[in-house]
Each structure stands twice: as structure tokens, then as C-alpha cells.
Design brief:
Beta Polymerase, domain 2; extended; four-stranded mixed β-sheet; 30 helices; Ubiquitin-like (UB roll); Hypothetical protein af1432
């Protein structure tokens, strides 16, 4: 889609001055992305234009469309946020910043970087919802062009879309984007099932179309009779929703009835219920299949009447009845409720969904309480990406909670004080334990007491939502502060004793204050309190406390090693000179030969060795089991093999490469390095990576004296938790 077509689409709902701004943003983006191409071979500018078009389909305001055109300029070009701020204003720069990945920061792993990117995006979204609307449009266009990616990238992006972006689109009620992303993701993750369901649906649809047309004609006739204006159409089901139904409910394809439903759009709510009455007089409704989402809207603001009727052929058919406004909300969710105000930052219509979307505020709260990005994402997935249950108070108020919630979660959702004073709960009039799983439609009554002692530590295990757990932790921070400080101090002293350190030396105020500052605590008591209630471990504090000590030990070791090396290099007698150039290896029957170690097997004292006379580079020393040594079959080459042996009195360092395999976890490499350092061994080089199965593979070049020294280093590394194997490498 070119610029002109984009402006034409925008002109249907925007003013002339807005069109000028969009043109300006387009020209800026085109200039910035000039010369860049996508993997499909198309000019890069076509991607931001497509994203802007999707935003226009949701009738977003001019700032959102401009941000969509410019969403990649900071990430992929030389343009900075300050440039955008200067040219287009603070609001737009804020939107683009929320969409820009954190590329320039060094992260330990790809996963950590991804979590931090998501965290940044969600916090930006909580401040301005337009961030996520642009992101969804961006992801949708990336999914449409997924075929140009490698197979591995296709599967990774499709899975990520299903795990994160589809649930977001669902929570925001943007079903038009959600359904398309789900179907594309399924096509790449399980193509066999996708094409099978598509084929079966096509066959069944052809069969059912005549039947559906007959039902529609009957309804239309009746509506006209009653003077109700309505738009009636058949609605095919999406492939992913059929697949999900088959998987979760363990059904065969022919057991799924609502492949083709009837959708009726009318002018107002009164007509919705009147139409429902007409449908139920024409055909018998199926018991238990009627849902009134108008009186009880879903959390994502979806409103509609759903009923399943049994037609003349005896086949169940779903009918959905809603107003035009409800239909727009079901397609575009939160975007349909966006109010654009001239000259101001865009906002949302108050009351329409402000109360319903209070989970945004909770994201901000969660962000303030959680330092770790991985923990933040876990909490988010738990609280916001799970299915919901709807429960009632005895007065009929509705509360939405994550699936699997217990009365305790409900109590804290009503009010923090109610949660803190909880002593029991009733569900549907019966007393239940606090870990009772709630179901949609349950009437929950919380029993409280003024004389309650407050939350128990066990509640942290019972609570299912991160919101509840953070509230319980807050209480322990505040109410049980003295107790927590005392407990924290005790745990810290115990940990120091375990490490073989004298507690009173390390618990001095200035040392503790230094550690507290490193963990961004206000004072020592805050830190000790956090240890006491489980916000941070004593081991983490000890690591920070002894950081300086470890550095000094490493420096001392380095100095010692340097001194040893200097000693080795010091000028000596002629006999010592011979030993030095021979690297501690003597050739039988020959003196003063140039000797070097083969890099393919890196022999060390203690290994069985053999020599090979090279052309012009002296004698190359190999391990006897080295694959590069010529055998008797090699004729002339085999004649070059000579006997060599280790000299007994040489003190030198030999380079050995080892491979370490283990289970990837935080701090594994650090512990391995510490184990090597404790064995007084110098490290020449280290590299490591992790594969998708959480296997950590480390390659390390160490300087050792002999085979026994190497064995002791290997044994030390093997003692590290989660290490599977340590072996010497042969090239």
C-alpha cells in the first residue's frame, strides 16, 4: 500500500490537518529506512505502512498512525528519540520508545533480553494503551509475512505470538487481530492439522450453507413482521478455535456443532432481547447453552446474546445477537472505545472500560514490586494471560479472577484490609477451606475478624495470583518488621558461619549498609527485614558482602601466578636454558632440539607421549592416543615418529582445553570459574553458550602443571551443582 492509498483510507475519518501530519511522518520514515529491505526483498518502508493501515482499520487517532509509521526508526536506523521528540512531540516519542527493543544493553542470555523487552513494553502499555495496539498491528503484519523467515524463526515467532500476543489481543477484546494471528500461528506450528481442519470445514460448510440460508430467510421474515431492522449473516468459525476445542475437550471434528453460526446485528439493546424472543418462538433452544453477555459482559468488554437452537434437521446452530456498537467492540475491543481529543493526549472514554481495565494499574504495581524481569513475566502470565472465573459477592457484585483462584485471592481483590483480616470463607453458603478452587458463578462470602492476627506465611503458598502474594508480603514488611529484622539477622549470621566466616566481623553497620545500597534498600533494617520475610535470600547478601574479599583473593592469586611465571622466565645456566626450550620434554639420544606441543591434543606431564619430526619446525609432541600420529601403514611418515619422554624436574604451565556440560541456570558459569580459581589455576580463555534444551556448554583453556593438577581441577568442577560432565578436548 502506497502513501496515496494510505491517505485515502485516513480521509474517511480524519481532518485535512491530520492527513498532512501523516504525510510528514511517512516522508520522515521513508527517508530514515531508505536502502533497507525486508527478508521478502521488499523495501522496508512497506512494513510500517502496513502497520499504519491496520491501525487505521481500528480507526485509531492521528498520533497512533504516525507512531505506527515511525515505530522502527529508533531501533533500525540512526534516528534517536531526541530527534523524534524535537520533530513530532513528546507523546509520539513516548509511544515509539515503548515499542523499541533494548538492544544496546548487555544481557546474560537471549531469554533475559526478551523478558526485559516485554517488561518495557507492558509498562509502556500500562501508561499508554496505544503502545500495545501498535505492537499488535506490527506483530500481525510480521505474521502475514512469516513465510520469508527460516523454519526455526517461524516456529519461535508463531509460538511467542500464541503465548503472549494472542492473550493480550483477547484481554483487550480485539478479536479481529486475535483470530487472524491464531490461525497463522497454527499454520506454521501444526500445518498438518491446520490444512485437515480447513478441508473438513470447507466440505461441511458447503453442506450447511443451504440449511443456514433457510434459517436466515425465516428470521428475516419474522423481524420484518415485528418491525425490527437487522443485519443477518452466517459466521464461519476460525480454524484455531476448532483445533483448540478438539484438543481441550478431546472431541472429533464431527462432534463440533457451531462451525457456522448466525449473527444478527440490530440497532439497540431492546431489539436484541426482542429478537431473542422471536428466535426462541421459532425454534426450541438447547438447555444450558444460553449466555447473556449483555447483562454480564466479559472482562474484555465483549457483549452479545448467545443461544443454541435445534433447527428442522435436528442439527444444533448457534445464534449471536448484538447491537452495531457491540459488534464494533467485539472486533476492535479497547480500540473501539478510544476517544481522541484535539490538542490533548489521547485518552479513553471514562466509565466505559476504565473500571474494567484496572489490570493496567496492577501491571504498574507489579513492576514496582518485582525487580526481576523473568519473575515479572511469570506473574503477568499467571494473572493476565490465564482464563478468568467470575464470582459474586452476596450483594451481587461481580469480580473477575484468574482461573484457579481461591477465596483468599477474592478477599484481597475486594480490599486489602478484608484480605488481612480473613479468618474463613463461605462459597454458595457452605464453609470451605481457603485453598478451595473457585468456579464461575460461585457466590463467595469472606468471614473476617477484628481480632485476626493477620496473614500467615502459609498463605503465600495458597494464594494463586501475584496481586494477593504481593499484598501479603507488604503486610509482613510493615506489621512484622521487628520480627522479620531479627529473623533476617539470624539467617544472615547462619549463612556466614556456613561459609566459614566470623559473623561479628561481617555484620558491622558500614559493611551491611554498603550491601543494602547495592540491592537498592533504603537502610540495613529494610534489607534484614527482606531476608526475614523471604523477599531476598541470605546467600545473595553474603555474595555481595564477600565480593571485595573474593576480588582480593583473585588478585593475590594473579600476583602469585605472575611471580611464578617470572621465576620460570628468569635467566639461568646453560643447562636450564636447554630445559626451557625443550618445554620439559627430552628426545631419546638427541640433545638441544626445538620441541613444541601439538595443538590438536595438548599433552601435559603424566600423559603418554610420542614425538614426530616435522619439516623445518623441530619435534612436534603428541599424546600417544592422538589421531594425527602416522601409523605403520603410512610408510615414510611413520618413520618420522620418534620416542620422547617427560623430564622429571621441570616446573612449567601447560595449556589444556576442556569441555564442561551442565544444566543451564543463573550463576552456573560464575560457580565453575570460582571452582577453577580455588584450585589456584590460571584461566587463559573461556566461552559458553546455552541451547534450547537448557544445556550449558562451556569451553575453557586452563594452564596446568601436570596430569594430577588437571585431575584435581576436573574433580573440583564436577562437584559444582548441575554439572553433568567435564572432559579434555581433542581437535
Amino acid at each position: 500500500m502506497g502513501m496515496e492509498l494510505l491517505l485515502e483510507k485516513a480521509s474517511t475519518y480524519m481532518k485535512e490537518q491530520d492527513l498532512q501530519k501523516i504525510r510528514e511522518a511517512y516522508e520522515f520514515a521513508e527517508e530514515a529506512h531508505r536502502g533497507q529491505v525486508r527478508k521478502s526483498g521488499e523495501p522496508y518502508i512497506l512494513h510500517p505502512v502496513a502497520v499504519a493501515e491496520i491501525c487505521m482499520g481500528m480507526q485509531m487517532d492521528v498520533v497512533t498512525v504516525m507512531a505506527a509509521l515511525l515505530h522502527d526508526v529508533v531501533e533500525d536506523t540512526k534516528v534517536t528519540l531526541d530527534d523524534l521528540r524535537e520533530r513530532f512531540g513528546e507523546t509520539l516519542a513516548g509511544l515509539v520508545d515503548g515499542l523499541t527493543k533494548l538492544e544496546r544493553i548487555q544481557f546474560r542470555s537471549k531469554e533475559e533480553q526478551q523478558n526485559e523487552n516485554y517488561r518495557k513494553m507492558f509498562v509502556a502499555m500500562a501508561n499508554d494503551i496505544r503502545v500495545i495496539l501498535i505492537k499488535l498491528a506490527d506483530r500481525l503484519h510480521n505474521m502475514r509475512t512469516l513465510k520469508f523467515q527460516s523454519e526455526e524463526s517461524q516456529r519461535r515467532i508463531a509460538q511467542e505470538t500464541l503465548d503472549i500476543f494472542c492473550p493480550i489481543a483477547h484481554r483487550l477484546g480485539i478479536s479481529a487481530i486475535k483470530w487472524e494471528m491464531e490461525d497463522i500461528a497454527l499454520r506454521f506450528l501444526n500445518p498438518q492439522q491446520y490444512y485437515r481442519i480447513a478441508h473438513l470445514m470447507k466440505m461441511k460448510r458447503t453442506e450447511r450453507e443451504n440449511y443456514i440460508t433457510e434459517l436466515i430467510d425465516k428470521i428475516r421474515e419474522k423481524l420484518e413482521e415485528m418491525g425490527i431492522q437487522g443485519d443477518i449473516s452466517g459466521r464461519p468459525k476460525h480454524i484455531y478455535s476448532v483445533y483448540k476445542k478438539m484438543m481441550t475437550r478431546n472431541k472429533q471434528f464431527n462432534e463440533i456443532y457451531d462451525l457456522l453460526a448466525i449473527r444478527i446485528l440490530v440497532d439497540n439493546v431492546k431489539d436484541c432481547y426482542a429478537t431473542l424472543g422471536i428466535i426462541h418462538t421459532l425454534w426450541k433452544p438447547m438447555p444450558g447453552r444460553f449466555k447473556d453477555y449483555i447483562a454480564m459482559p466479559k472482562a474484555n468488554m465483549y457483549q452479545s446474546l448467545h443461544t443454541t437452537i435445534v433447527g428442522s434437521t435436528g442439527e444444533p446452530t448457534e445464534v449471536q445477537i448484538r447491537t452495531w456498537e457491540m459488534h464494533r467492540t467485539s472486533e476492535f475491543g479497547i480500540a473501539a472505545h478510544w476517544a481522541y481529543k484535539d490538542g490533548n493526549a489521547a485518552g479513553v472514554v471514562p466509565g466505559s472500560f476504565g473500571e474494567k481495565m484496572n489490570w493496567f494499574r496492577e501491571i504498574i504495581e507489579l513492576q514496582q514490586e518485582t525487580r526481576d524481569a523473568a519473575e515479572f513475566m511469570e506473574s503477568l502470565k499467571m494473572d493476565f494471560f490465564t482464563d478468568l472465573v467470575f464470582v459474586f459477592t452476596p450483594k451481587g457484585e461481580v469480580f473477575e479472577l484468574p482461573a484457579g483462584s481461591v477465596p483468599l485471592d477474592f478477599a484481597y481483590r475486594v480490599h486489602t484490609e478484608v484480605g488481612n483480616r480473613t479468618i474463613g470463607a463461605k462459597v454458595n453458603g457452605r464453609i470451605v477451606p481457603l485453598d478451595h478452587k473457585l468456579k464461575t458463578g460461585d457466590i463467595v462470602e469472606i468471614l473476617t475478624s477484628k481480632h485476626s492476627y493477620g496473614p500467615s506465611q502459609d498463605w503465600l503458598k495458597i494464594a494463586q495470583s501475584s496481586h494477593t502474594r504481593s499484598k501479603i508480603r507488604q503486610w509482613f514488611k510493615k506489621e512484622k518488621r521487628e520480627e522479620s529484622v531479627e529473623k533476617g539477622r539470624e539467617l544472615l549470621e547462619r549463612e556466614l558461619k556456613r561459609l566459614g566466616l566470623e559473623p561479628h566481623e561481617w555484620t558491622a553497620d558500614e559493611k551491611l549498609l554498603d550491601a543494602a545500597k547495592k540491592f537498592t534498600f533504603n537502610d540495613v533494617e529494610d534489607m534484614l527485614s527482606a531476608i526475614g520475610f523471604g523477599g531476598i535470600t541470605a546467600a545473595q547478601i553474603c555474595t555481595k558482602l564477600t565480593e571485595k574479599l573474593r576480588k582480593e583473593a583473585e588478585e593475590a592469586q594473579q600476583i602469585q601466578l605472575t611471580a611464578e611465571v617470572k621465576e620460570m622466565k628468569a635467566p639461568a645456566s646453560s643447562s636450564a636454558e636447554k630445559k626451557r626450550t625443550s618445554h620439559g620434554v627430552s628426545v631419546k639420544g638427541v640433545d638441544n632440539l626445538l620441541v613444541r606441543f601439538a595443538r590438536c591434543c595438548n599433552p601435559v606431564p603424566g600423559d603418554d607421549i610420542i614425538g614426530y619430526i616435522t619439516r623445518g619446525r623441530g619435534v612436534s609432541v603428541h599424546r600417544t592416543d592422538c589421531a594425527n600420529i602416522p601409523t605403520g601403514e603410512d610408510g615414510e611418515e611413520a618413520a618420522r615418529v620418534i620416542e620422547v619422554e617427560w623430564e622429571s624436574s621441570v616446573d612449567a604451565n601447560y595449556s589444556v582445553e576442556i569441555e564442561i556440560l551442565g544444566h543451564d541456570r543463573r550463576g552456573l558459569l560464575n560457580e565453575v570459574l570460582q571452582a577453577v580459581s580455588e584450585s589456584k589455576t590460571n584461566i587463559a580463555a573461556v566461552s559458553g553458550r546455552s541451547d534450547k534444551n537448557k544445556m550449558a556448554i562451556m569451553h575453557m583453556t586452563i594452564l596446568i602443571r601436570n596430569k594430577e593438577h588437571l585431575q584435581s581441577v576436573v574433580d573440583k568442577i564436577k562437584r559444582v551443582k548441575d554439572i553433568f560432565s567435564v572432559q579434555r578436548m581433542m581437535q
